[in-house]
Design brief:
By secondary structure, this protein is an alpha+beta fold. Helix content is 13%, strand content 32%. The protein has three domains: 6-81 and 284-426, Cupredoxins -  blue copper proteins (Immunoglobulin-like); 85-242 and 275-280, Immunoglobulin-like (Sandwich), CATH 2.60.40.420; 243-274, no CATH class. Bound molecules: copper (II) ion.
Length: 427
């Protein structure tokens, strides 16, 4: 058997989780709600000294304690279901569909003489709290009340229009990691509108280029605090198959004179597989993983690590013994159909540590650094590392693996033990 026993995997997750929660529970930067040890929820939303979040904002700070989502008293369960790390994996905002808390639209418009598809999103910065470990609330600054912020998705050549409003207490911006031709739209303090104070708004416009997996974040100073508090998100730019057919050399390491008809055809097929408007894309199970960390005592060092904010959120919870997870339980592996190709859009956002990494057990994968090429930049690797803001696309194939649990985690062992440890459950 290649997979771990479910009960032992659950023991491991629970042991690491308890140790982590014990180690950070008294840190200055967090608030501990009494959900551990079957005590039930403490009264009142814990806001870590930040006061109430603005009413009418998208903040998720207020916990619905009369919720029907079951009892949150059990050890190892997350109480805050407003953000579900399993849903987040698959939440792509394209302008024509996405999350309820992300107002969006898509339409055609002539921009500087060129007719383009415009994908418009409203992003609002707020102060809120996010659950980073069972019962542990971190005082975050967040786009649309969530960390990571909403995943934005467009096609190469589109115009991404972001109506940004700052309802947080500090001055913020949005800086895109795109090939942006207008310095006013760079989202830095020194250009265009500069930083936006509380209550101010600005509409950013960015050309969606190049194709790849990209990143947006606040660029206010001190930068390390504004990023680390949670103001970041993924921006995916799908390749345009027609453009790939016309300029295939821009999507691989070959010179134009070396492009054969077969290679052009392969690159176009790969572009279709990556393009959410193409039928071929529906065959692939696509997930977003943003590797992040939290400095819970504000000493300039991370105490908690995760993929998508929740320490051990993709660990193994208690089951009924048959791999079916108990109702309401939010600690569970990512269940995947072994016969479908898997694609992970991976981004590293951690502050304070110079690198992060992604390592798969019993598996090798193809990797596309920044996702800007259609041929892999690394073939058959089981570990990649990323500095802050580095990102890439991972393609995995479990079609010949036995069903069961396959671990993946940061291969900085410390990060794994402090939360960035996860499982795929292949079925
Ligand atoms: Cu900021």
């Amino acid at each position: 058997m290649t997979s771990l026993d479910y009960g032992r995997a659950a023991d491991l997750t629970e042991r690491l989780q308890s140790r982590l929660v014990d180690s950070i529970a008294d840190d200055a930067g967090v608030t501990r709600r009494a959900v551990l040890g079957g005590l039930g929820i403490a009264g009142g939303a814990a806001l870590a000294g930040l006061g109430s979040a603005d009413e009418g904002s998208h903040a998720i700070a207020a916990h619905d304690e009369d919720s029907t989502h079951g009892n949150f008293g059990s050890k190892g369960e997350y109480a805050d279901l407003a953000f579900d790390p399993h849903e987040y994996l698959y939440q792509f905002n394209t302008g024509e569909g996405g999350q309820e808390n992300v107002p969006q639209d898509v339409y055609r418009e002539t921009v500087d003489g060129v007719e383009r598809t415009v994908r418009e999103f409203t992003l609002t910065a707020v102060d809120t709290t996010v659950t980073i470990a069972p019962g542990i609330e971190f005082p975050a600054w967040a786009y649309n009340g969530q960390v990571p912020g909403p995943t934005l998705r467009a096609v190469e050549g589109d115009l991404v229009r972001v109506e940004f409003e700052n309802l947080g207490r500090h001055a913020h911006t949005i800086h895109p990691h795109l090939r942006n031709l207008n310095p006013r739209m760079d989202g830095i303090p020194q250009n265009g509108p500069g930083v936006l104070d509380t209550g101010e708004s600005f509409t950013y416009e960015w050309l969606a280029q190049p194709a790849g997996v990209h990143f947006y974040h606040c660029h206010s100073l001190p930068l390390k605090e504004h990023i680390h508090r949670g103001l970041y998100g993924a921006m995916i730019i799908d390749p345009d198959p027609e453009r790939v057919a016309a300029r295939p050399e821009e999507y691989c390491g070959f010179h134009a004179s070396q492009i054969t008809a077969e290679l052009r055809e392969e690159l176009v097929a790969r572009a279709e597989s990556r393009n959410h408007e193409s039928d071929a894309n529906a065959d692939v199970n696509e997930m977003v993983m943003v590797m992040n960390g939290f400095d819970t005592n504000f000493d300039g060092d991370n105490e908690v690590y995760a993929a998508n904010t929740r320490a051990f959120g993709y660990g193994v919870g208690r089951t009924n013994g048959k791999g079916e997870w108990a109702a309401g339980e939010t600690v569970r592996p990512i269940r995947i159909d072994g016969q479908r190709p898997q694609r992970v859009y991976l981004i590293n956002t951690i502050e304070f540590d110079p690198i992060n990494s992604f390592h798969t057990h019993s598996q090798f994968f193809d990797y596309y650094d920044h996702g800007t090429t259609l041929l892999p930049t690394s073939k058959r690797v089981d570990t990649v590392m990323q500095c802050q803001a580095q990102r890439g696309i991972i393609e995995l194939d479990y079609s010949d693996h036995e069903p069961g649990l396959y671990m993946f985690h940061a291969h900085q062992s410390e990060f794994a033990e402090l939360g960035w440890m996860s499982f795929f459950e292949v079925v």
